[in-house]
Amino acid sequence: MSLIDILIFFLVIWWPIFFILLPIGYEPITNDNEKTEFVRSAPKKPKILKKFLLSTAISFFITFIMWILEYYSLFTLKEVFL
Fold first, then answer.
1. Are residues 55 and 18 in contact, defined by beta-carbon separation less than 8 angstroms?
2. CB–CB of 43/27 below 8 Å?
3. pLDDT tens across 29-46, in order?
């Protein structure tokens, strides 16, 4: 895998993992008595940085495994798609 292939694979894997992690730990805003500037479906604490770092770590691990598999010629994505 070239550096561009690794980067593209990482980004393609990162986005779905990030969107999968977004609803984890969701707690809606429940203040009915007070007027808030946010919609009620907005989370109290989104923890975006934690989810960003976790999705980066998971994507890095998956990308590393794919790189190892291709480096030792055990599995390549190019053979699957070409």
1. yes
2. yes
3. 776 666 667 777 788 888
Q: Which residue has the tokens 């994505």?
A: 77
Measure the CA–CA gap between 66 and 77, rounded to whole angstroms: 9
CB atoms within 10 A of CB 5: 14
Total-model pTM? 0.80
Q: In whole angstroms, what is the distance from residue 50 CA to residue 80 CA?
A: 34
Concatenated DSSP letters of 14-46:
HHHHHHHHTTTT--B---SSS--SS-TTSBS--
- Structural domain containing residue 46: 3-81
Which amino acid, residue 33? N
Q: Look at the chain and report how many structural domains it folds into.
A: 1
User: What's the mean pLDDT when you consider all of the chain?
Assistant: 87
